[in-house]
Amino acid sequence: MPRQSSKTKDLSRIIARKRTAGLLSLSEKALRDGNAELSRRYAALASKIQSHYRIRPSLRYKTCKACGSILVPGITSSTRLSSSHGYIVVKCAVCGKELHKVYKK
Fold first, then answer.
1. What is the pTM of this model?
2. What single-letter DSSP state applies at residue 84?
3. Which DSSP symbol is given to 73?
4. Who's near 8: CB < 8 A, 6+ residues apart?
5. 100: Cα separation from own chain's centroid
6. pLDDT over 90 percentage in the chain
7. Are 43 and 63 in contact (CB under 8 A)?
8. Are 22 and 49 in contact (CB under 8 A)?
9. Crossing angle (nearest 10°) for helices 36-52 and 6-32
10. Contact at 8 Å (CB) between 67 and 97?
11. Do 78 and 91 touch, CB atoms closer than 8 A?
12. pLDDT tens per residue, range 42-74
């Protein structure tokens, strides 16, 4: 199989980023319309695209690692600050898993 040129790889990664962004917006729209299963499917497809094209994971803080649902504040997640430890705690409302983001060093 012939190797792709760097220009072709860059173009395919740009297209993959656009499709990932589109899938994330469709996932959020499906969740707001009440279709959680379709929302999870869109998020899973976006994750597969990102891993295949080796794009930096923009889904890291947007999806739950345990159940795969998209985290929308107020709908499927709750957010609070832990000022003593210096991180943000995002709790999934579907499965209860907590995600920690550091904001203070």
1. 0.78
2. T
3. B
4. none
5. 15
6. 50
7. yes
8. no
9. 170
10. yes
11. yes
12. 999 998 998 898 888 777 788 888 888 899 999
